[in-house]
Amino acid sequence: MNHSNTNKEGNMNENAAKAFGELVDIVDRLMGENGCPWDRVQTRESLKPYLVEEAYEALEALDHNDPEKIKDELGDLLYQILFHAKISELQKEFDIRDVVNTIADKMVRRHPHVFKEGELHTPDQVVDQWEKIKKTEKASRDRQSVLDGVPLHLPGLKRAQKLQKKAAKHGFDWDRIDEVFAKLDEEIAEFKEAVRHGDEAHVESELGDILFVLANVARFQKLDAEEALRQTNNKFVQRFHYIEEQVTKQGKTLKDTPLEEMERYWQESKKK
Question: What is d(CA 228, CA 240) in angstroms, rounded to the nearest whole number?
């Protein structure tokens, strides 16, 4: 055994524990009797938007692969977790130690090939074992439907794909992607018909059906529909910024610029 490596890892763990403890102390002080007036009045409900916002800002930092930004945003996300845990502690439900112990126990329980015995050699084998272990846990045993457990507040495409994946595991699925394409064609035709009739509620419903099938196409291709759309959104922003830059160079505004000219800049941005 390399004792120098062992000592180094031990010191890193001690430093991490110390840093984490100091952050917990900061939360305690901010939420304490003489703490911050804003922090002290926050609730689970009021903090929901911040939790989502910080998660997406962390994703954006990961997109840019900027270590400093990633470090900063992960810290913001971690603080939100500590914030929620402190609220629960004040309500005498649980504290941050319970949160940490719960996830630690879960990770050990769901990785018996690492912490106990047995060998797994592929990621797919790990996923299959993970799902089997999940089914034995109380939270899963209490569920009434195989679709239970998919969070209601997930982004739409993400939730659609998770629902489809759960249903597919129980045999509710097409055999070939060509069948999914046929369903997509059918839904697009129904959407066009709804648009022609001008029924707004019907149009919305049919558009939802199209998006749901597109999520299924992504699942068949082992792609993340939400991530694919997020990347396209980022790509659109980059290309539109290029249009804005070119228009500004011409001393004009977007409203003064013909669509044909903007389209030319768009095509230029694609080449770049």
Answer: 18
